[in-house]
Amino acid sequence: MTNPHLVSSARWRKASHSGGEGTECVELANVGAVRDSKNPAGPALCVDLASLLTSVKRGRFDFE
Predict the structure, then answer these.
(1) Claim: this prediction has a pTM higher than 0.70
(2) Does 50 fall in a domain?
């Protein structure tokens, strides 16, 4: 589990494939957390970042 203090002081990066109109924005933190960039003070989901990125690259979350 990720320490909440680490999440609050983390460096966040907006995903390059976030929606262009600002409606589907996701940010990833260097400590293994994901959050909605429109609500930076809101909750963050702590994840195994390597596994999440592997799943994303394999298209596991593509819903078209």
Answers:
(1) no
(2) yes
